[in-house]
Amino acid sequence: QKEVEQNSGPLSVPEGAIASLNCTYSDRGSQSFFWYRQYSGKSPELIMFIYSNGDKEDGRFTAQLNKASQYVSLLIRDSQPSDSATYLCAVGSSGTYKYIFGTGTRLKVLA
Amino acid sequence: GAGVSQSPSNKVTEKGKDVELRCDPISGHTALYWYRQSLGQGLEFLIYFQGNSAPDKSGLPSDRFSAERTGGSVSTLTIQRTQQEDSAVYLCASSLDSDEQFFGPGTRLTVL
Fold first, then answer.
1. Which residues of A touch B (CB under 8 A)?
2. Is A43's CB within 8 Å of B91's CB?
3. How far apart are CA B95 and CA B100, in angstroms?
4. Which of B33, B35, B38, B43 to mutate to test the interface with A (most CBs of A within 10 A)?
């Protein structure tokens, strides 16, 4: 059974701090990794995707991938109250269109 | 441009009734996914359509669930003889290249 694990939280950080969200996965054949943000009562929206080991930066967001250790993380710099949401990690395997979603980490940014 | 739309936004039904949920994907998107999200849970994959290929139905939880996609566009998810455990938000997503998925607003199904 392929699994994607996330700490459910809530993860509370003060405004302006760095929020670090982590995700581990069980399938070593995984090739694509996505972070979605979901506000309460809303549908998920893509924040970032990453395919290669290392860091990928987009504005205040950085995705970090370590395939050897089978984890992917999302860093949010200068966290804002508007970043308060649930962050879902999704993992896809090579040659497949099917993505396994984690249960999400709830982030609370305190003003 | 128009995003993914779903209807109805809310559906309350009685146990044992059949329901149909509709999804209109983004025009031109060949891939379409159905997911189910229960309260406080992640997304549970249900079914995947890609172009004219046979759908991947491996996530459907029982034979009471079925889905079709007509003309490579609109999709309907049908749940027969609904049970209380079917209560959830049903999300549809479409994708152009099987990478970024664009989600619809979802249908909240409540089975009494």
1. 4, 8, 32, 34, 42-46, 49, 88, 90, 97-104
2. yes
3. 6
4. B43
Euclidean distance between CA atoms B14 and A60, whole angstroms: 46
Rounded-to-integer distance, Cα A11 and Cα A8, Å: 8
Q: Which pair of tokens denotes residue A31?
A: 């090739």
Question: A70 — phi, psi (to 5°)?
Answer: 60, 50
8 A C-beta contact, residue B92 and residue B3: no
The pLDDT of residue B46: 95
Sign of CA dihedral B88, B48, B106, A5: positive
pLDDT 10s digits, A24-37: 999 998 989 999 99
Nearest to A92 by CA among A6, A39, A33: A33
B85 phi, psi to nearest 5 deg? -70, -5
Q: Is B41 on the interface with A (CB under 8 A)?
A: yes
As a whole-number percent, the residues of chain B with pLDDT over 70 amount to: 98
The pLDDT assigned to A95 comes to: 67
The first and second tokens of residue B78, run together, are 């049908």
How far out from the chain centre does Cα B102 lie? 13
